Amino acid sequence: KSKLDRDKVRRDMAISLKRDYYLTGREWPYKNVNRRILAEQFMVDESGYELKDYKIFCFDGEPQFIQVDFDRFAPTGHKRNLYSTEWKLLEFDYGYPSDSARNIERPSNLDTMLSFARKLSKGHRFLRTDFYAINGDTKFGEMTFFPECGFGEFSPDEWDTKLGKLIKLKSPSGGRLTILSTSSTTPLLQMICQITNSCVLTAKSECASPAANAAQLMA
Q: Is the pTM of this model over 0.85?
């Protein structure tokens, strides 16, 4: 506390209170939220200087991989390692560079965090649940349906497809939407159909008309 620059903190808070976080990524939960200053207990983990963030990505209520954020404010820059639920380092980057040389030990309360993640994500196609591990205790962080505003980049690209396939999207009737495939069909639409398996692209000769095709739902 003796090292705290109170004037700088006041300036930063004043700037933050003027910021409309919704405009940053158009995440609807932040729209029209009253701006407040929240004071939380200062916490560090076993390192004694930082608080690593354990973010569990759940699909249909089942944890699939864990994102660990560390060195957020270090001179070397924010790092992010990805692990399987068996705590094996996954060889891809997401949003921030990884550091394979950094040996992050499996937290002793990992099973507890995974159990909480399953309960919190039950009934949701996708949900990320965040926790902290402090001397064996589990602290809840937050939940989100759209990490990185949905714009986080994967490297290599193949992991974007691998993880995208874990999201099972269906039409309200439980069927798949048939969409007319033409020369003007956007690559994005083609990719969504391929990854989510929620729609079928049909050649023009196989469909009576665009209107009929767009309305057709396959059981």
A: no
Q: Which residues contact 5 (CB under 8 A, 6 or more apart)?
A: none
d(CA 77, CA 102): 13
Q: Are residues 159 and 84 in contact, defined by beta-carbon separation less than 8 angstroms?
A: no
Q: Give, for 58, the enclosing helix (H) or strand (E).
A: strand 53-59
**Per-residue exposure over 85-111, b if at least 16 CB sit within 10 Å of its own CB, e if not:** beeeeeebbbebebeeeeeeeebebbe
CA-to-CA distance for 82 and 160, rounded, in angstroms?
14
Distances in whole angstroms, Cα of residue 106 to Cα of each of 14, 21, 56, 117, 164: 39, 34, 14, 17, 26
Per-residue pLDDT of the chain (219 residues; tens, 9 = 90+): 778 899 999 999 999 999 998 998 888 888 999 999 998 888 999 999 999 999 999 999 999 999 999 999 899 999 999 999 999 999 999 999 999 999 899 999 999 999 999 999 999 999 999 999 999 999 999 999 989 988 899 999 999 999 999 998 775 555 555 544 455 555 655 666 665 555 655 544 443 443 443 344 333
Give the C-alpha separation, 154 to 115, whole Å: 27
